[in-house]
Specification:
FAD; Rossmann fold; 7-stranded mixed beta sheet; 21 helices; 6-stranded antiparallel beta sheet; NADP
Length: 680
């Protein structure tokens, strides 16, 4: 049969003829195929070359560009600087200190620049010796439990892995910490030690600032000894010039497009009107408050539970994370500052950096109005630091007031004592100082230049994303107290949040927020027992933990013992989440609920007393159950007392000496079995 479409072959043709015919056919096909392959190969070869060669130059340029842009060495050479002050800052204080040190340099014939380590390639430290009389100073804050600040994380990682010779580098470190925390000044100590290990030369001893004491005084004391050491090392002398030099110039905008004016945004203009993920510190999400209820039944304080709606934000969080919120200052304080200084607060202006090479073009988003700056961008409620008083002194027309301000800004013992009593202990903010010094009337633009930035406030999240994926819960207490001068001071964020009540007509109360990841995590295995200690609002993360353990149980997982030690003042006054906790206990999720009511009896009872009472059970959970321990709340007293109680329990039931028990608990911390989320 003949296949359809194919030519028929005569059956009488001999096999030899057939073979010859096939040979001819194949040779023609071979030539055709070889030509085709050769053509395709030639085309591919040239096409391939073009594909490879053309992108080469742009690739080289794009790789080279960031290196050039991120080189602080090149920038220092270009601008004639020889001192660079890096800062690891979470709340702005280390950045403020770095700016003050870089500004000091000109008094010694040197030129300094403050620098964010996140913006530069720190491996360039090995090249700093290329610059004459060069020095690197590090103002490093410690965050949380001995962690680097967010902007110093990359620098910390680089230091850990670096195998570099820094023998030409001269350095000094000032650390910012808090003695109530377990890992006091861990970051400052590490940077100081590690730079020396890499061969760098320390030209002045490590400074350790303590925010639990007087951080400002610690810094001033260190600074007044640091500069003479620099002078001696480099053979330079003070020029006698004081450092009252403006860093920014004022530009008033009389004819401006209001669409180009910042109204409280943290980064991108109009970012609150046109929200785009991902959301972070420079791009917060505007969350609606869907619930705001008072938690306590009585007492003078106001304890509250808020719920923030994060639907459609793509924000993800885990139990134990922190939510950061950007608050606003009280409008009455802002108005009073405007009135005292005789200023139209709605004037639109910009403060432009006089150093054109600086990465920081403005002290806060500009152009904006004075009202917006004082409401959203500047800290007007904390006592101002001594450098602010020094700069303001020139504007006091009364000689006595001017002398008083200069004295408080000096490094003399008498001046330090006056600053401590009149400003710090009396909790005088900038408004109180202006009220109590009638001749002090600085230009509002200089005041705005000097005041530190208003910082985000962090709260432990009081919910589980397994149960509330589109909502973040906050548990907080409003801060309100009377100062020694008889003024009523109110916490900025808590009082602002207190007034964020969802309205009946459906319009929303909005909170700019973002999530900060934490190491405060439930055990990987749900079957691992947990011991949670959290008096007062320290219960917040444990509400999330308990919700998550309940959810895991519903999923059919084996959930270990869940033990809570909670404390409040009085059972019928401030027992937070009483109904929820009772329900969790009834459902068997919360296996133990131990509550200390400190003021319901003659002798005060705290959570550590209940731990001692149940010490045998506590030890069994730790020793046999491999339980994880979590402590949340006050660092100054509670966390320390609880830790000492664990030392006692371990010593007694583990048959250990006190030093051995301390070592045992420290090892629990290292292994992630003893976690802290504390504040002072």
């Amino acid at each position: 049969l003949t296949a359809m479409g194919e030519p028929s072959i005569d059956p009488t043709i001999s096999s030899a003829d057939s073979t010859a015919q096939q040979d001819s056919l194949f040779s023609m096909m071979d030539v055709f195929l070889i030509s085709l392959i050769t053509g395709l190969f030639t085309y591919w070869f040239f096409f391939r070359k073009k594909k490879e060669e053309v992108p080469d130059l742009p690739k080289m340029q794009s790789v080279a560009a960031p290196v050039r842009d991120s080189s602080f060495i090149e920038k220092m050479k270009k601008t004639g600087r020889n001192i660079v002050v890096f800062y690891g800052s979470q709340t702005g204080t280390a950045e403020e200190f770095a700016n003050r040190l870089s500004k000091d340099a000109h008094r010694y014939g040197l030129r300094g620049m403050a620098a964010d380590p996140e913006e530069y390639d720190l491996s360039d430290l090995s090249r700093l010796s290329e610059i004459d009389k060069s020095l690197a100073v590090f103002c490093m804050a410690t965050y949380g439990e001995g962690d680097p600040t967010d902007n110093a994380q990359d620098f910390y990682d680089w230091l850990q892995e670096a195998d570099v010779d820094l023998s030409g580098l001269r350095f000094a470190v000032f650390g910012l910490g808090n003695k109530t925390y377990e890992h006091f000044n861990a970051m400052g100590k590490y940077v100081d030690k590690r730079l020396e290990e890499l061969g760098a030369q320390r030209i002045f001893e490590l400074g350790l600032g303590d925010d639990d004491g007087n951080l400002e005084e610690d810094f001033i004391t260190w600074r007044e000894q640091f500069w003479p050491a620099v002078c001696e090392h480099f053979g330079v002398e003070a020029t006698g010039e004081e450092s009252s030099i403006r860093q920014y110039e004022l530009v008033v905008h009389t004819d401006v497009n209001m669409n180009k004016v910042y109204t409280g945004e943290m980064g991108r203009l109009k970012s609150y009107e046109n929200q785009k993920p991902p959301f972070d510190a420079k791009n917060p999400f505007l969350a609606q408050v869907t619930e705001n209820r008072k938690l306590n039944e009585g007492g003078e304080r106001h304890l509250m539970h808020l719920e923030l709606d994060i639907s459609n934000s793509k924000i993800r969080y885990e139990s134990g994370d922190h939510v950061a919120v950007y608050p606003a200052n009280d409008s009455s304080l802002v108005n009073q500052i405007g009135e005292i200084l005789g200023t139209d607060l709605d004037t639109v202006m910009s403060l432009n950096n006089l150093d054109e090479e600086s990465n920081k073009k403005h002290p806060f988003p500009c152009p904006t109005s004075y009202r917006t700056a004082l409401t959203y961008y500047l800290d007007i409620t904390n006592p101002p630091r001594t450098n602010v008083l020094y700069e303001l002194a020139q504007y006091a027309t009364d000689a006595g007031e001017q002398e008083r301000l200069r004295k408080m800004a000096s490094s003399a013992a008498e001046g330090k004592a006056l600053y401590l009593s009149w400003v710090v202990e009396a909790r005088r903010n900038i408004l109180a100082i202006l009220q109590d010094m009638p001749s002090l009337r600085p230009p509002i633009d200089h005041l705005c230049e000097l005041l530190p930035r208003l910082q985000a406030r962090y709260y432990s999240i009081a919910s589980s994303s397994k149960v509330h994926p589109n909502s973040i819960h906050i548990c907080a207490v409003t801060v309100e107290y009377e100062t020694k001068t008889g003024r009523l001071n109110k916490g900025v964020a808590t009082n602002w949040l207190k007034n964020k009540v969802p309205e009946q007509n459906g319009s929303s109360s909005l909170v700019p927020m973002y999530v900060r990841k934490s190491q405060f995590r439930l055990p990987f295995k749900p079957s691992t027992p947990v011991i949670m200690i959290g008096p007062g609002t320290g219960i917040a993360p444990f509400m999330g933990f308990i919700q998550e353990r309940a959810w895991l149980k519903q999923q059919g997982k084996e959930v270990g013992e869940t033990v809570l030690y909670y404390g409040c003042r009085r059972e019928h006054e401030d027992y937070l989440y009483r109904e929820e906790l009772a329900r969790f206990q009834k459902e068997g999720v919360l296996t133990q609920l131990n509550v200390a009511f400190s003021r319901d009896q003659a002798e005060k009872v705290y959570v550590q007393h209940l731990l001692k009472k149940n010490k045998e059970n506590v030890w069994k959970l730790i020793d046999e159950g491999m339980a994880h321990i979590y402590v949340c709340g006050d660092a100054r007293n509670m966390a320390r007392d609880v830790q000492n109680t664990f030392y006692e329990i371990v010593s007694e039931f583990g048959s250990m000496s006190q030093p051995q028990a301390v070592d045992y608990v420290k090892k629990l911390m290292t292994k992630g079995r003893y976690s802290l989320d504390v504040w002072s």
